[in-house]
What we know:
Layout: H1 2-17, H2 21-28, H3 31-41, H4 46-52, H5 57-63, E1 71-73, H6 83-90, E2 98-100, H7 112-122, E3 128-130, H8 139-148, E4 154-156, E5 179-181, H9 189-198, E6 204-206, H10 216-226, E7 232-234, H11 243-252, E8 258-260, H12 273-280, E9 286-288, H13 297-306, E10 312-314, H14 323-332, E11 338-340, H15 349-358, E12 363-365
Parallel strand pairs: 1-2, 2-3, 3-4, 4-5, 5-6, 6-7, 7-8, 8-9, 9-10, 10-11, 11-12
Helix pairs in contact: 6-7, 7-8, 9-10, 10-11, 11-12, 12-13, 13-14
Bound molecules: 2-acetamido-2-deoxy-beta-D-glucopyranose (NAG) (4 copies).
Residues 73, 75, 100, 102, 130, 132, 156 line the site of one 2-acetamido-2-deoxy-beta-D-glucopyranose.
Amino acid sequence: MLSAVRFKTLAVLRQLVLLSPFQTAAINSSPHNRHLIQLILSHLTLADLCRLAQSCKLLHQHCCDPLQYTQLSLQPYWARLSDASLGHLQSRCTLLQRLNLSWTGNRGALTLTGFSSFMKARGLSLVCLELSCCHFLNEPCLEVISQSCPRLQELNLSSCDRLHPQAFTHISKLIHLRRLVLYRTKIEQTALLSILTFCPEMRHLNLGSCLRIEDYDVVASMLATRCRSLCSLDLWRCRNLTDRGLAELVAGCRMLEELDLGWCPTLQSSTGCFQQLARSVPRLRKLFLTANRTVCDSDIEELANCCPLLQHLDILGTRLISAVSLKKLLQACPRLVLLDVSFCSQIDTRVVQELSSLFPNVAIKKSFTQ
Ligand SMILES: *[C@@H]1O[C@H](CO)[C@@H](O)[C@H](O)[C@H]1NC(C)=O
Ligand SMILES: *[C@@H]1O[C@H](CO)[C@@H](O)[C@H](O)[C@H]1NC(C)=O
Ligand SMILES: *[C@@H]1O[C@H](CO)[C@@H](O)[C@H](O)[C@H]1NC(C)=O
Ligand SMILES: *[C@@H]1O[C@H](CO)[C@@H](O)[C@H](O)[C@H]1NC(C)=O
């Protein structure tokens, strides 16, 4: 479908290229026509725009129009992007708001020089910056971001595992951050606490696999006092969050809608922490309790009692759950669409089939490789 649109678009543009200078001037004098051309061009890829810009003066002008570059994803060109090509795009990006550089710049193609000159020139209007798997990033790069992008609301540093722990301290200067992804980075506790102190608008935070954070209870407590509007939190594989930390978190962050507590080995259902969680966050939509541990029927029943908006529940690997509590949950949560019960030893294929036929709108996932 998309490529059909692209094909038609190119056919229209081919006609434009054939016009005389007089005709193109006439076309361009009408705001309506200019708008129409912009609309057509908005269907093209960056590579198309760059090629087309070379075809004629009219199209060069339109292909370089900053309105075509409010959102720019350079991820598809990760293998070719260099300091030079980034510099080449700079003049067109005066209105840039969202930039995706994920996977780019590896093996020396992008350097501090190219990155920082782009950021210094174009950072002011940026609200979203995707930098996952950018191994060229170093501490000076983060310093440049913190100085040049005062309006930034979203920052994704997922899997930037070569960034030195010290680099993360710069993030606390981005005080309007609402979404921050630090999955699989080397951030340490001090830097994280400072970010949470200075970025009170945080809505979405991913701390999955941040193995250098020492004490997650301290982090939970800071989240509860500073980030009361938190909507989603990913603590996948967090080393040592306890029931005390979780209790504090859910008492402070009542707006939580998504919570990933997968593979958190120190949370024990016997403390009542999962039931308290269910009682504290009535807006909960997605909950991951993935692991091989203690979640039990009373936890599921409390979710059924308190979280009617639940859409997605993952209890992979919990042995204590019975079909009865799952049925209660399915009845109480009409919006449920996904229930993962893989490796739940009491829930066999026959139970899954029965529940699936009673609740056909829910995908009940059961891995069969056990
Ligand atoms: C930007 O990169 C991310 C990976 O960080 C990718 O998942 C996403 O689809 C990209 N966004 C756009 C708009 O291309
Ligand atoms: C951040 O990047 C990762 C990895 O590419 C992607 O999967 C994820 O969706 C992104 N997260 C956000 C919140 O944009
Ligand atoms: C978590 O780690 C910190 C620092 O290593 C330690 O002080 C705290 O007692 C740990 N908590 C648990 C529950 O192990
Ligand atoms: C759960 O733990 C048991 C024993 O500790 C192990 O045999 C089993 O493979 C584990 N299951 C999962 C899903 O990790």
